[in-house]
Structure formats: C-alpha cells, structure tokens
Write a structure and sequence with these properties.
two-stranded antiparallel ribbon; 2 domains; about 280 residues; 9 helices; about 0% strand; mainly alpha
Amino acid sequence: MLNTLSSFFYFYIPFNTQIAKLLALLFITILFSSVGSFLNVCIYRIPLKLSIVKPGSFCPKCKTPIKAWHNIPVLSYFFLGGKCRHCKATFSFRYCFVETITAILAVLYFIKNGYALDLNYLKFVFFMCFAVMIFFIDIDHRLILDKHNYTLIIAGLLFALIGATHLFQALIGAGIGFAIFYSIALIYWLIKKQVGLGGGDIKYITAVGMFTGIEGVIFTIFFSSIFGVLFNIINIGKEKEFAYAPYLVAASLLYFFMGDSIIKWYLDMTFHMLTL
C-alpha cells in the first residue's frame, strides 16, 4: 500500500543542460523571494491575529497601501532606499533579509539536490518556509505557534507516507525528539519550578524528527545546544532569557545541507582515534 502511494506521488524533474539549470535557478530565485515576501506578512500579522489576506501590504507607520510596483521582493527595498514612498518612514532591513534568505536557501538546496525538482526538494522548501516563520516570530514574541508546529508534524507524516522520508525513521525521530525535550522540560520544572523549555520547542523538535528521522533530530538537538551556549558566552552579562527556536531552526536547516557530511566526518574521526 505504501509503495503504491509513494509511486503515485513520485515526481522527478531533472535539469540536465546549463541553460536549463540557469533558467531553473532564475525561476526559483524569483519564486522564493516572492514566497519570502509572503512570509514577512505572516511573521508580522499571524502573532497579532490579523488576516494575512486583507488588507494588502501597507506601511506599518502611516498605514498607506503599498503599490504593487513598490512591492517587488528585494529590489523595491533598494529602489525606495528602504523607506515608505508616502511618509518616508524607514522600513526594517529584515523584510529584505527574509526575502533574500528564503530565495538563497531554496536555490542552494536545489543545487545540493542535483538540480532536480522532486519530493525531497518539495519536502525541504515546505519545512524551510515554516522554519523561517518560526525563527522570526520566536525572536519577536518568544512564541512558537501551535498552528505552525502541528502543520509541520502532519506534513512530515504525509511526506513520510508518500515516500519522501522512511516512515519508521520519521515516527521514531519524532518520538525521540519529543521524549528528549519533554524529559528536559519536566526535570527542569521539578528542580527549578520554572519553565525551561516551552511547549512550542517540544512540538517543533517533534516536527523536526518527523521530517529528518533519527539522525536529524539528534543532530538538531546537539547543534542547537552548541549554538545556544555560544550565544550565551557572547552575551555574558546581558539578558538571560532568550528565544531557543532560532537555534533549533538553524541546526535543523544545517542538517539538511551538511548533516550527512558532518556525521560522516565525526564518525571517521572517532574511528581513527579509537584505532590509534
């Protein structure tokens, strides 16, 4: 049954010539910079419980609607000098950054994926879009929304069912991620009587496990802790409370790009040291 379902959803579009690759890269850049523009809307409006459909884009200060030709992803920011054409209020560079990083991640993974559009690529860009939203919403609001986490968990399961991830790996990865983070949160609560890891972090790592399997969830937990420690070292004496989702997002995306290489390097180094 699963093999039949996997075959039904399987698709693979290779780009074998240089011209085809360049055109595909251009298309993906334009498409995902536009997706990044939409993610900016979601990042700003969803936590405030505003519609992401109506009204259209507007200046946060003067509320003037932004014309379509003033809302071209990435380019408009520089054409307008990063300011509202109507009231001259300065727009945050983050809008441009989100559009740019979304396009860059999509392009780089397309190259890593062998210039092919397939289920593996679709799985990555779906995960990446939600990861970008979660990254910035957590920075702004110290919040990972359940609607994002549950969507990722369900989507990860669906991708596993249609063959983008091994189903056993997805289920066990999700279970390991949940068990580890829930145990950490529970132990911290019992000792400190304070919330150490929020429910959003626990659900997000569960979603990561569903998308990446056992290796991916362990990799993400390990490297997110390293990123968190480094951040604390750099910010000694500053605010102690910080959003943890950005480190989870960074570590999970790192796994998609370099996880296999880093794990292989670590295992080879360990084997070499043990055989000395």
